[in-house]
Amino acid sequence: MPDSLTQDLAAQLQGAPAQRMAQQLGIEPAQASAAIGAALPLLLGALGRNASQPQGAQSLYGALQKDHAGLDLGSVLGAVLGGGGQGGQILGHIFGDRQPRAAQGLGQATGLGGDKAGMLLRLLAPIVMAYLAKRMFDKRQAGTVAGDQPGPQVLGDVLGQEHARVAQDRGSGGLLGAVLDQDGDGQLGIGDLMKLGGGLLGGHR
């Protein structure tokens, strides 16, 4: 079975990229790598949830095509470390009004705290978008991921598979479920808020 999007991107961010993000956040490289491993499923799982709706897939596909296609991950990393990349704006599209909850949940799950977790999400969001655009539109990769005719439906299918993988993971799925409500009304229920307590990744490690 091919690596999931999360696994593939996480592998690309190991080493020097993770070290650079660790320096930016003021944490140890090992902690940064672990936090990246927790943040990517959250971002890609949320994108998969959004893309499960036809309009959501169409909107995301258009954004990838217009703003993120043809970008090299290394240059995107350099831009976001320099304060560019519009990470906050991208997170607003991914999480909506649940963006603070996503940072809080990730911060509790990783020990980073909400502020640094929010910074990490802002660093990763443009990288995730550039990565998805590369998977969709790079002809060398499109045949293995998106077929010969990538489009909104294919993007939705690919991200839907990723969302399903994340949901099956006890740790990542718990965090994702705590951030994204289950009924699609944009509100977090009592059960969701309780999941944001101390045991987000209980049993995962």
Briefly characterize the structure.
This protein is mainly alpha-helical and 205 residues long. The protein has helices at 5-12, 16-25, 29-51, 54-68, 73-81, 87-95, 99-110, 114-137, 139-145, 152-168, 170-179, 190-195. Helix 2 (16-25) packs across helix 3, helix 4 (54-68) packs across helix 10 (152-168) and helix 6 (87-95) crosses helix 8 (114-137).
What features would you highlight for this structure?
mainly alpha; 205 residues; 12 helices
Radius of gyration: 16 Å
- Please, what is the average pLDDT? 80
Sheet-strand content, in percent, reads: under 5%
Report the major sheet.
none
End-to-end C-alpha gap: 24 Å
| Content-based structural category | mainly alpha
For the record, the count of structural domains works out to: 1
Low-pLDDT stretches are 182-205
Order of helices and strands: HHHHHHHHHHHH
Gross geometry: globular
Give the number of helices.
12
Count the strands? 0
Helix content: over 70%
Could you explain how this protein is built, in words?
Helix 2 crosses helix 3 and helix 7 (99-110) crosses helix 8 (114-137). The chain has one domain (5-195). The chain is mostly helical and 205 residues long. It has helices spanning 5-12, 16-25, 29-51, 54-68, 73-81, 87-95, 99-110, 114-137, 139-145, 152-168, 170-179, 190-195. The protein is built from twelve helices and no strands. It is globular and about 40 Å long.
